[in-house]
Amino acid sequence: MTITAGIITVSDRGYRGEREDLSGAEIARLLKALPARVDAIAIVPDEKDSIQALLREFADQKGLDLILTTGGTGLSPRDVTPEATREVIEREIPGLTEMVRREGARKTPFAALSRALAGIRGRSLIINLPGSPIAVRENLEVLMPLLGHAIEKIQGDQRDCARPERPSTGSALPGS
């Protein structure tokens, strides 16, 4: 299955053309490994209405499987991506961003300052990522093994979610 994806970069300076969108480009590069096809890319200012409008368009009109935002997840007064996302998603998936923060904290304590969200709108998975290429790469390293399965489930896959068997160590478990 090829996943259809959209990337939304949230950056005032990027929107004004004062900064190159390196994190959006990094997301596009990394998604090839899924495999995913990037069908939509946009840069918006740090404005809640603009972010929400694109999230709705990418999910509702374009019907993309995966929508990744980059930027606006920190603590500055203009960082409103999580607030915009919260108002657009129908169901939150806190485990994804909890896992990313936990793994990120192994590399930098600043990972705890991320306010990123993940959730579902219709049949689309929406995930907020940080605004730096390095943080995008580190976050996606954590998320990539889960994305295909998550999208299949969101889109109605009825198969059981069985945990892969671990190789036998030769020792019997108590009670077996």
Account of the 3D structure:
Strand 5 and strand 6 form a beta hairpin. The longest helix is centred in the C-terminal third of the chain and has 22 residues. This protein has a six-stranded mixed β-sheet with strand order 2-1-3-6-5-4, sandwiched between helices. With 176 residues, it is α/β, with parallel strands linked by helices.
What descriptive keywords fit this protein?
about 180 residues; single chain; about 40% helix; disordered C terminus; 6 helices
Number of strands: 6
SS strand fraction: 15-25%
SSE topology string: EHHEHEHEHEEH
Side by side, the strands of the main sheet go: 2-1-3-6-5-4
Secondary structure tally, helices: 6
Structural class: alpha/beta
The shape, in one word, is globular
Distance between the termini: 39 Å
Q: Which value, in Å, is the CA radius of gyration? A: 17 Å
